[in-house]
Amino acid sequence: MDLFATAAPESLEWLELDGASRLGMNPRYVTDQQSLYQQLCEQCVWTQPEVNLFGKRHKVPRLNAFYGDVGVEYRYSGVVHQASGWPPSLQVLRRRIDSLLGTGFNTVLLNWYRDGGDTMGYHADNEKELGPQPTIASVSLGAARRFVMKRRNAPATKRELLLEGGSLLVMAGRVQEEWLHAVPASRGEMAGRINLTFRRVLPQCIR
Ligand SMILES: O=C(O)CCC(=O)C(=O)O
Ligand SMILES: [Mn+2]
After folding, report:
1. Averaged pLDDT, 166-172
2. pLDDT tens by residue, 17-61
3. How many Å lie between the centroid of ligand 1 and the Cα of residue 75?
4. Rounded to 5 degrees, what angle do the CA atoms 183, 175, 83 make?
5. 23 CB less than 6 Å from ligand 1?
6. CB 114 within 8 A of CB 190
């Protein structure tokens, strides 16, 4: 998107979606993104959780990993993830994004789309542990994929971004209340992509 064409490493350009929902973008936030992609592929503990859908068990169509401050738990898609610390490379990235946004993120969820057949369906990151109007920072590595959004109460109202490797997308304000987002299949895309979403589980939700 041309709106986001220029960006210094520690800057964001903001796009108002509907007055109360904002997206921040820096398409070139992680410069050594291919090497971080490789490192995370090799070093993270990847799982393919199963979820219940209409009474049947299904493996999610991608791989997951989860890190964060020791003791923090996060329930996502019906799966409880438990954090047990940060790999050094993710700790560095978390600190960098925290100082850009002033957020205090304490977890990161990783999704590895092994090729264009791996996807994420429409959803919002509106778990109660994140509190109202959570700010979520999403870093993409590897292949570019479409990130599609639709308004909850007017599904014909859509937005679409191409999330390139190295980009940082920030969802803020009422994005999770007003909009749903998804990563659709990409026919013919053979290269992989890792997406990292930094989130802050509220202190009162940490046992
Ligand atoms: O892969 C992406 O860009 C989106 C990931 C996402 O929405 C999530 O982890 O909740
Ligand atoms: Mn999400």
Report:
1. 98
2. 998 999 999 999 999 999 999 999 999 999 999 988 889 999 999
3. 15
4. 70
5. no
6. no
Contact predicate 48/63, CB 8 Å: yes
Q: Is the pLDDT of residue 100 over 80?
A: yes
Ligand 1 pocket check for 169: Cβ under 6 Å: no
User: Does the CB atom of residue 149 touch ligand 1 within 6 A?
Assistant: no
Ligand 1 pocket test: pick from 74, 120, 125, 199 the residue with the most ligand atoms within 8 Å of its Cβ.
120
- Residues having C-beta closer than 5 Å to ion ligand 2: 125
pLDDT band at 134 (very low <50, low <70, confident <90, very high): very high
Cα 164–Cα 189–Cα 109 angle in degrees, nearest 5: 55
- One-letter identity of residue 169: L
Which domains does the chain possess? 11-201 (2.60.120.590)
- Tell me how far apart the alpha carbons of residues 114 and 190 are, in angstroms, rounded to a whole number: 8
